[in-house]
Predict the structure.
Amino acid sequence: MNLLYLGLFLFVTLLTTLYLASSKAIFAFSDWTFHAARVEEIYLNLKSGSFFTFIAARTFHNTGAASFLFYPYIFFYPWAFLRFILSPVNAFYAWYALVTFATATISYFSMKAYSKKSLASFIFSLVYTFAPYRLYLGGAVFGEYLAVTFLPLLFLGIYEVLWGDKKKWYLLAISGALVAYAHILSVFLSLEFAVILFIIKLITSRGISKDRIKSLLLSAGVCVFLVLPVIVPFFTDFIGQGLSSAKPSISYTMGPRYLLLNSFSAQKGWKLSFMLMLTILTAWAFIKSRRNWIIYGLGLFACFLTTRYFPWKLTAGTPFEMVQLTARYLSYASLFLTILFALGSSSVLEEHVTGRKKLALSCSLAVFMALFSLSSLSVYRDTLKHVQDMPKTSANSTQPAPFKRLRDYNYYNQFNYKILFGAFDYMPKSSLTSVQKQNSLLMHQAYLNGKTLTLSPLIKANQISYQVKSEKAADVDLPVIAYKHTTVSVNGQKHAFRRGNRGTVVVGLKRGQNTVTVGYKASPVFYLSIVISILSWLALLIYLVKFKAKYAQ
């Protein structure tokens, strides 16, 4: 049955992706330009022979922004590699299909390990993978979109450590690492529910055994080693450097009425599916086990967190403000409620379906979910038909990227606009104190001898050069952000620099023509963290092979 279900997942994935890809266009909304610019930087660096990307030399208006240091990007490499063989639009949709199929597969095997029921796992995977909120994330919000792929495995790992087979602690370590490589904020959100589950364990079991505590600590410790390349830059380049991050605030909450009514509409968005809304309204009638009551409670609580009735104002000034959009909790609501929907619906179906009928039922469910997803995506397709193409703009424009249509022929137009969300993330706070400072960076403005110069950058991977002519010895303030491990050379010779009042590189020049090159050289600790991480993954793989062999006996 596993092969049949995988084939059906592939069928639904290809059908929904081809439906979108046949438009030969992309709607650039929300976080699209932020992530598309990051992928473009990775692709161009790979093209020039550089595997690592540290700063934005070619995109982000050549400001040298270090979003790559502090925002994981490893799962964007497949997208970047696809750019070598496919057009920009097709490369994105091919990557979209890969992530979708991976989500369906991971969801299926995670649920099967938890429930031991194939049909329930199949239903869970279909409903979870093609949930309206996840379909919305797949249009532009790619960090969260990737994290959702691994949430079923993460909570399976938590379950095994707290209630199941504590020897499977490695599931929590691996899944926690995968979420961290996708989206740091999702790690924080997942920890909230992990803490709740830990407290529930203490209450319901009247404590927790030492062996389970050891498994929990072991999984956490191994997870840290696996994600060292994500953690280290925060210690070497962020802490104590006066850098900004995504603005912490709760900027939007939903009303219960909106969530309820919106979930019965056909389109994707900030909502649950009608199947999960029906689960909320009816699940209490057939839940019998304590375990399912816990799952039901977590699903309801996640829904509650999305609404304005949760006292979000009390979180002001706390780390909980990092959530920003409470709709993020819909991913967790979908996860928990889909478990109940799958268990309940599969139990009813299995009472009446056996043999060949089960095969027909599985195919029918796949077709139904495909049609349901196409219905959800139809609004997106309609938008692509009516929205205008993104027009050209100047290379140093301060105009925010508009919500417009991208095709292969105008795909590169987006990179000349100011990135709508995230253009100034992880820059020095001093560079954000005024709009004038921000715009001066976008317009490549340098300051020399009391004059404003508009310079044209010469670009290489992780490196930006400027030709600056000075009539006398003077300091030049370049439109490139200065970080702790930023490097500067003048006329090919390493040169000292300081951070100016824009948070940019300020360097002293001699009279005459000067070539100033600003780059980034990662700390040796960063490369050491990569080595440790790779060795940790290999050691864990060897352990799993031996563990599986021993477990089979």
